[in-house]
Amino acid sequence: MSDEKIKEEKSLNFLEEIIDEDIRCGKYKTIVTRFPPEPNGYLHLGHASSICLNFGLTKKYPGYTNLRFDDTNPEKEETEYVDSIKEDVRWLGFEWKHEHYASDYFDTLYEFAVKLINKELAYVDDSSSEDMAAGKGTPAEPGTNSPYRERTVAENLDLFTRMKNGEFPDGSRTLRAKIDMANSNMLMRDPVLYRIKHAHHHRTGDKWCIYPMYDMAHGQSDSIEEVTHSICTMEFVAHRELYDWLIEKLGIYPSRQYEFARRNINYTVTSKRKLLQLVTEKHVDGWDDPRMPTISGLRRRGYTAESIREFCERIGVAKRDNMVDVGLLEFCVREHLNRIALRRMVVFNPLKVVITNYPGEGEMLVSENNPEDPAAGTREIPFSNELFIESDDFMENPPKKYFRLAPGQMVRLKSAYIIRCEEVVKDAGGKVTEVRCTYVAESRSGNDTSGIQVKGTLHWVSARTAISAEIREYDRLFRTENPADEEGDFKEYINPASLNTITTAVAEPELAKAKFEERYQFLRKGYFCLDKDTSPSRLIFNRTVTLKDGWAKETKKKS
RNA sequence: UGACCUAUGGUGUAAUGGUAACACAACUGAUUUUGGUUCAGUCAUUUAUGGUUCGAAUCCAUAUAGGUCAACCA
């Protein structure tokens, strides 16, 4: 009941308000939205936002969402991208009603163009792109009419047909809308509608050598599909006038365009051009490098679809410029992973601990898989007199409030015993190579009768049964909040320490059974998942995100 | 020297003329066999100046700041 109340009270974003009103006043009974990527790159966090928005709207209101590929520029588009986009949208948890391609409408779009010519609203222009640019004027000064603007309908029809038939070379002619060269909106100054490109298209092959421009394809595709709410980012605001003009002049279904501000996220870049550069210039390991803000990169990194959806939900939608803190994304994934991740113990940088008074061969101890979820059950962990702990968890001369192991100090080994450090063994160089401890036999987890209270609990791995693993620790890809905005090349701001590979790690034997679809929390270390580079002889884990580290914060403050 | 868009805490969003709300971050403290989790608390007179009004974050005017637009890209 209270949930319902909260749901009802949650305020609507501006798009939901528009739709709410459209439905209330009877303008629409059901709505249609669409996610319209150009298949020229992999989907990233920015797209996730748009996907969640478009699909979210038709989850909330009656209607459906289409997936449409805006494939009107054959030179940049590839089937590989189409496939990855479909995979990513599905992985995010959404299913589209219809799968469309702007290229499916090339015939119809061509007819639309002919219609405009017949209505004297479009003409073939022989100007070079330089002359055309010069004729556009500037935002402050009107442009001048093209010398080809007054061609007759017959002449335009003939020329446009011949453009289609391949009689002219690339760039020699265009079809332009005849609107107003003095319009304060530059886009209304006789925009180009069609251009000649003798290029192979990933779907239509060599059938066409003229291709529609964005403005001649996008709104018309929306209209053909009877999209009611065509949602795009703010940089298209100026296009709306042309979008509406074309729909009106063509007399076709009146789709409406609405704009929202693109979500920017700090310490990363989300322009396809820049992401492509990172890949082709090998600054990263491919589109799915775990440091990339791509959906495939986040997936490989261990992010869950649920956490990405939650992130998009939390940042909301509005029309002002913004810079979202990547910390919120990290919060969302921690929140989810804390609920579902299986706890395991892995020591990254081992230091040997010998329990001098521990009798016998060893024993099996029991530990919970997830303290947040009793249903996750327990597992057995072997214990013996020779263990590894984290090198960072021992200090010979500890600072104040250091709750870990130090000479004479006691700690608990997680799910095992309390130990006390009795002796430090060093090599010739003075480096600590071994710590010798005694254990408190009555302090075993579950039936501790020792009465001893300790401040610190450490993760550990028994030496004899330990398995080795490689750990890949990822950090943010850039050193600055807004690399795209900095002086010079954005690549100068790449974080040189964005990947730290650890080859010395030892893990509890349970991890030999690690699965790709499983998520793990390595106790006191962070959240991890198995990487696709894992082989039968080598376990490789990616760090999705660290745990919050209060001690690190504390020590940083002091230094 | 134009047109258009935007302006609420460090960040992202609410408040639809009537008590500035939520989340993240940060900071206190408590709990804790993960320095995690959890819990309790602290953290803004809404870009500025006028105006309308009993009452303005909200409406109006002006200013200021940021952004977008002059691809045969999308």
What share of the residues does DSSP label as strand, in percent?
15-25%
Rg: 31 Å
Counted beta strands: 25
Sheet of most strands: 7 strands, mixed
Structure report:
- The protein has helices spanning 2-9, 14-24, 45-60, 79-91, 106-118, 129-135, 153-164, 214-224, 239-250, 272-280, 295-301, 305-315, 326-340, 550-558; strands at 31-35, 63-69, 99-101, 122-125, 174-177, 192-196, 210-212, 229-233, 256-260, 342-344, 346-347, 350-355, 363-368, 378-383, 386-390, 410-413, 418-426, 432-440, 457-458, 460-462, 467-474, 499-507, 520-522, 526-530, 540-546.
- With 559 residues, the protein is an alpha/beta fold.
- It folds into three domains: 28-260, HUPs (Rossmann fold, 3-Layer(aba) Sandwich), CATH 3.40.50.620; 272-342 and 469-558, Ribosomal Protein L25, Chain P (Beta Barrel), CATH 2.40.240; 346-459, Beta Barrel (Ribosomal Protein L25, Chain P).
- The strands form six sheets. It has a seven-stranded mixed sheet, covered by helices on one side.
- A hairpin with a 4-residue loop joins strand 16 and strand 17.
- The longest helix is centred in the N-terminal third of the chain and has 16 residues, at 45-60.
- The protein is elongated, with a radius of gyration of 31 Å.
- It binds one RNA strand of 74 nucleotides through helix 6, strand 6, helix 8, helix 13 and strand 19.
